[in-house]
Structure formats: C-alpha cells, structure tokens
Specification:
single chain; five-stranded antiparallel sheet; four-stranded antiparallel sheet; Jelly Rolls; mainly beta
C-alpha cells in the first residue's frame, strides 16, 4: 500500500478514506488548471460560492514519509478576487503548513514530512476559487 514508482505518490489523497470531516461539499477533480495555466491532477476544492472553513482528517498510522501537493487559485476564477483562501495542515495536531493565496498568487507547493505521524488534518478557509492539487502520500 502506498508504493508507486517514479515521481508520483504511492497514494493520492482522493483514494484515501477520511476519518472525519466538517460539512461538505468537498469535490475532487482531475486535471484542473491553476491561474497560471498549469495542470494539477487529483485536486480537491470546496464547492461553495461563499467563504467557509472546512476540514478533513485522515488516519495515517505512521505509514507515510511525506505529504505533497500545491495550494492554488483556479483558472476559471482567475479574475475573481476573494479574501478567504487559506490552507493549514496539521500533523498530530501540530501546525506544519500555513499559506494564503489570492488570484495573483503563484501556486504554493508543500512537501510535509510525516515520519511517525498518526493523523493528518487539512483545514481551509476557502470557496470555489482555490483548490489543493497533486496531493499524495509517499512511503
């Protein structure tokens, strides 16, 4: 489980069952484009035109070495400016990543070490304008 050769993670976020989540709707996309025209595979976003805080928690049980991805502004909304697009990632309740973006921001890449981590929580204050793409777990 969680092994894949090359430069792709062993397990995409979309393929992992979450342990708990706040209200939805959280949508997964394939091949979504960011505001700079780059394609992101295996993305997720909060499907709402209002700003909301949402989260998902995943049980990792120490099986993964890192979590990678990109927080980006979606191409379809590149002319829309919102103030509520932030992402936080917690590993065993400790904040390990924090970013804010807007429609002029380049995607913010993350590569979070997970050795020994039991639980990962993704928390975001977003709407339909931003997404988290290329998200995967590595062994």
């Amino acid at each position: 489980m969680g092994k894949r050769g090359g430069n792709k993670p062993g397990l995409w976020l979309k393929d992992m069952d979450y342990y708990s989540q706040s209200r939805g709707p959280i949508i997964f996309l394939e091949n979504d484009k960011d505001n700079l025209g780059e394609i992101h595979i295996s993305s997720l976003y909060y499907n709402s035109y209002s700003c909301d805080t949402w989260y998902r928690t995943y049980r990792l049980n120490g099986l993964y070495s890192r979590f990678t991805g990109a927080f980006y502004w979606r191409y379809a909304f590149r002319n829309r400016d919102n103030i509520c697009n932030s992402l936080k990632v917690y590993a065993d309740k400790e904040l390990v990543f924090n970013a804010e973006i807007n429609n002029n921001s380049a995607p913010v890449l993350f590569n979070i070490p997970l050795a020994g981590v039991l639980e990962l929580k993704i928390e975001a204050e977003t709407d339909v304008c931003s997404a988290i793409g290329d998200c995967g777990f590595w062994q």
